[in-house]
Amino acid sequence: MAGKGKILVVDDDRLVLATVSHGLAQAGYEVIDADNGDDAILLAREHRPDLALLDIRMEGKSGFDVAAYLREYLHTPFMFLSAFSDEDTVRQVRELGAVAYLVKPLDIGQIVPTVEAAFARLPERAPMPVSRPAPLAPVATAAGVGDEVVAMAVGVLMHRFSLRRAAALTHLKHLAEEDGRALREQAERVLEAVETLSRPA
Q1: Are 169 and 154 in contact (CB under 8 A)?
Q2: Quick check: pTM over 0.85?
Q3: Which one of 28, 79, 102, 124 is at 20 to 30 Å from 108 when CA atoms are compared?
Q4: Does residue 81 sit in helix, strand or coil?
Q5: Burial per residue of 132-152, b for 16 or more beta-carbon CB atoms within 10 angstroms, e otherwise
């Protein structure tokens, strides 16, 4: 897919998420979006974005949690978009190594140039193997989703079919029942299918 680059946008405010995602897509970027930190990590593992734009304060995993994961395991650069600019927040932003920090409210006309500047500073990124197994904390309380493979498959189904987490898990269970497979085995098949489709022809 042609474009300027792939960006993961994460914000629990749906209006902000939609506005920023649309603006970046209009500017020529491929955008993946998530409204919480757990889904952001799953989508980052699947899509390997070139840059992440993160809200900081969200329910569940915070933007800081997501940033730490991206830095440690996926080596993905990130920037923050937040309504908070207190001393402690700024200190954490610096310690994590963000490429930029934008304070809300902002319009997309201010965000796009900052994103473009961040991309201009990024080195050419070849696919980089993860240096060690990347553990995921359980991302849902629903039965079965504490398993990393199942959690990743649920995230894939949520993204592909625009489902909420519970509906995606139900869909995965239904597929497993139809095929007479265990839930984890069906989850592995979903992930294998994604990997097959993403391979170059």
Answers
A1: yes
A2: no
A3: 124
A4: strand
A5: eeeebeebbebebbebbbbbb
Angstrom distance (rounded) from CA 192 to CA 18: 30
Structure tokens belonging to residue 55? 């809200």
Q: Which CATH architecture has domain 148-198?
A: Orthogonal Bundle (1.10)
- Model confidence pLDDT, tens digit, residues 107-127: 788 888 889 888 887 765 444
Mean pLDDT in residue range 16-29 = 92
Which comes out higher in pLDDT, residue 2 or 103? 103
Residue 32 identity:
I
Distance CA(139)–CA(30), nearest Å, equals 25
Check whether 98 has a pLDDT greater than 80.
Answer: yes
Query: pLDDT value at position 47?
Result: 95
Residue 148 has pLDDT above 70, yes or no: no
- The CA distance from 183 to 165, in Å, is 15
Answer whether the bond into residue 123 is a cis peptide, omega within 30°.
Answer: no
- Decide if 36 contacts 22 (C-beta within 8 A): no
Domain residue limits, the chain: 6-121, 148-198
Decide which of 43 and 132 is more confident. 43
Q: Which helix (H) or strand (E) holds 96?
A: helix 87-96
| Cα–Cα distance, 154 to 190 (Å, whole number) | 9
Q: How far apart are CA 64 and CA 56, in angstroms?
A: 6
Q: CATH second-level architecture of 6-121?
A: 3-Layer(aba) Sandwich (3.40)
